[in-house]
Automatic annotation (TrEMBL):
<dbReference type="GO" id="GO:0003700">
    <property type="term" value="F:DNA-binding transcription factor activity"/>
</dbReference>
<protein>
    <submittedName>
        <fullName>FadR family transcriptional regulator</fullName>
    </submittedName>
</protein>
<dbReference type="GO" id="GO:0003677">
    <property type="term" value="F:DNA binding"/>
</dbReference>
<keyword id="KW-0805">Transcription regulation</keyword>
<dbReference type="Pfam" id="PF00392">
    <property type="entry name" value="GntR"/>
</dbReference>
<keyword id="KW-0238">DNA-binding</keyword>
<feature type="domain" description="HTH gntR-type">
    <location>
        <begin position="8"/>
        <end position="76"/>
    </location>
</feature>
<dbReference type="InterPro" id="IPR036390">
    <property type="entry name" value="WH_DNA-bd_sf"/>
</dbReference>
<dbReference type="InterPro" id="IPR000524">
    <property type="entry name" value="Tscrpt_reg_HTH_GntR"/>
</dbReference>
<dbReference type="InterPro" id="IPR036388">
    <property type="entry name" value="WH-like_DNA-bd_sf"/>
</dbReference>
<keyword id="KW-0804">Transcription</keyword>
């Protein structure tokens, strides 16, 4: 007779505890995670609950089981969680607009931070000169990183993945490159009005 499946509340709690354990132990992609039995003992949860949680994480592409070897942590950047959630979240027109507006708000706040603090732009100038940015978003991502707000950067990155399902990426051609250079120069010279003009040009 099969063991009863854990209820959703217990299931989610176990998934969260496994995630916290992976973070606490400092496990990296490719590292082996504890066995089902070890997890059951460590988390003080039933084997069936642990099994269901691991199965869910494997379906999401966060871990992989290798026959005869064990279970290993996969590179989170390669899993399709964003696409999976996006199929539900982005069905709603309001949600699509919210994603793009929130993404834009984070970009604007990062620009204001750089403008107010006078953060060095040398690295971004070098990247522009070397034509390292392939899209406008890759340039904006670097600006957000330069603002020093790591949390904003992480949220922006997730939103950009959703946003890619809504709007096509803007490639970095000569015109966009000039606009990026103009925006950076305005940041350096603290010309706020002109900075916003370049920003909105980049977004169109």
């Amino acid at each position: 007779m099969d063991s009863p499946k854990p209820n959703s509340k217990v299931f989610i709690e176990i998934v969260n505890r496994i995630r916290e354990m992976i973070s606490h132990d400092g496990l990296q992609p490719g590292d082996k995670i504890p066995s089902e039995r070890e997890l059951s003992e460590r988390l003080k949860a039933g084997r069936s609950s642990i099994r269901e949680a691991l199965r869910a994480l494997e379906l999401l592409g966060l871990i992989e089981t290798r026959r005869g070897e064990g279970t290993f942590l996969k590179d989170f950047r390669n899993h399709h969680l964003v696409e999976l959630l996006g199929t539900f979240i982005l069905k709603d027109g309001q949600a699509k607009g919210d994603v793009l507006l929130t993404k834009e708000w984070l970009e604007k706040e990062s620009l204001r931070t750089i403008l107010d603090t006078g953060i060095s732009m040398e690295a971004i100038q070098d990247s522009l000169a070397a034509r390292e940015f392939r899209t406008v978003d890759s340039f904006l991502r670097e600006l957000i990183h330069h603002s020093g707000n790591l949390l904003a950067g992480k949220i922006w990155y997730i939103l950009s993945q959703y946003g890619a399902m809504v709007e096509k990426a803007v490639l970095m051609d000569d015109e966009k490159m000039e606009e990026c250079v103009g925006l950076v120069n305005c940041l350096l010279e603290k010309q706020e009005d002109e900075m916003w003009e370049f920003y909105y040009k980049l977004k169109t």
